[in-house]
Amino acid sequence: MPDQCYGLGQSQTTLSGVVKDAAGRPVIGATVVEKGTNNGTATDNAGRFTLSSRASSPRLVISSIGFAPQEVATGSGEISVSLAEATTSLGTVQVVGSRSQNRSVTDSPSPVDIIDLREVTTRTGQLDVNQLLQFVAPSFNSNRQTGSDGADHVDPASLRGLGPDQTLVLVNGKRQHQSALVNLFGSRGRGNTGTDLNVIPAASIERIEILRDGAAAQYGSDAIAGVINIVLKSSVKELTTSVNYGAYDAKYRFDDQKFDGGNFNANVNYGVGLGERGSFVNATLDFNQRQHTQRANVPSIDGLLRREYGDPQVSNASAYLNSKFAVDERTSVYVFGA
What is the rounded distance in angstroms from the CA atom of residue 177 to the CA atom of residue 50? Predict the structure, then answer.
């Protein structure tokens, strides 16, 4: 009896089509996958594709970068797919372990940051303007230097590593005067006179705008490093008070003190409206007391002339005023300062 062979086969369906965008242009390299399987292909330079399937009426999923995925049913004729652009944008890249911040304003030719003082004060725990910007503003640098000329009282601050006198500081868009201290004896920015940002209480500031690029063509040579514009509060009938305290772990001291460098700050801000033309007076009272720190790990021996190596003890009380008086519809007189 001759051997008999039996074969069992299944026919395949060949699918073909074209993928275009909303403007009718071919989408090159779009992925075409049979739903629920690993069977797929990609479109050619004309946006066309050919795919073999064992299913009689498979469903295809078409996707491409920048377009929303689309699922289509197949029939007997050629498949024509029109992909719509994706409505969601790619997320911002944040580098882990970097102090670099994303730009607040992205549609300007130069990097501009807008810093909300109320938000960053809560987030950083810093109480003076220099240290606030040190923690949140890229390219801004301000370090306390113990025993370095007058840096214990006026911290030299700079942008992009340039001199303190090459950063222009504005208050409400008007130039803020520089300090009379010339940095000498090993301090940063030697031979420069910078602007003391800490004379302005953080409680009196609405926001800080930082231009992290040279603006000498617009403002002059003192804006080579950049521009810092401090916008003061202009709120009325709003009382704001704050009390803060912080300290450092003193585990590197020889004595039994557990904490040092205690920083106490109390402030109050209130504004009053005047008339019906937008005139106002906004005032801030601020008190800050910072205790010294000891970081040299030197024992406090009687007769040792210099025992404390660290941040000095500083007490500062200030009152700051921001006001505007409307003379007529087109003329206003402004007054601000400490």
Answer: 73
From the list 256, 172, 164, 247, the residue with the least C-alpha distance to 208 is: 172
129 in the same domain as 211: yes
Residue 313 is classified by DSSP as P
- Up-side HSE of residue 95: CA atoms within 13 Å toward CB? 6
Domain count across the chain: 3
Whether the CB-CB separation of 135 and 141 falls below 8 Å is answered with no
DSSP 205-241: EEEEEEE-S--HHHH-GGGSSEEEEEEEP---S--EE
Task: Centre a 10 Å sphere on the Cβ of residue 233 and count the other Cβ atoms it contains.
Answer: 23
163: domain CATH number?
2.170.130.10
CB under 8 Å to 1, separation ≥6 — which residues? none
* pLDDT, averaged across the chain: 79
Domain co-membership, 258 together with 328: yes
CATH number of the CATH domain containing 67: 2.60.40.1120
**Cα four-point dihedral sign 158, 164, 168, 171:** positive
- Among the ranges 50-64, 149-163, 298-312, which has the highest mean pLDDT value? 50-64
Whether residue 99 is contained in a domain is answered as no
**Are 253 and 260 within 8 A, CB to CB?**
yes
Decide if pLDDT at 277 tops 60: yes
- Of 232, 258, 286, the domain-final residue: 232
Domain range enclosing 54: 13-83
Q: Give a yes or no: residue 131 inside a domain.
A: yes
Q: Does residue 218 contact residue 227 with C-beta atoms inside 8 Å?
A: no
**Cβ neighbours around 150 below 10 Å, total:** 17
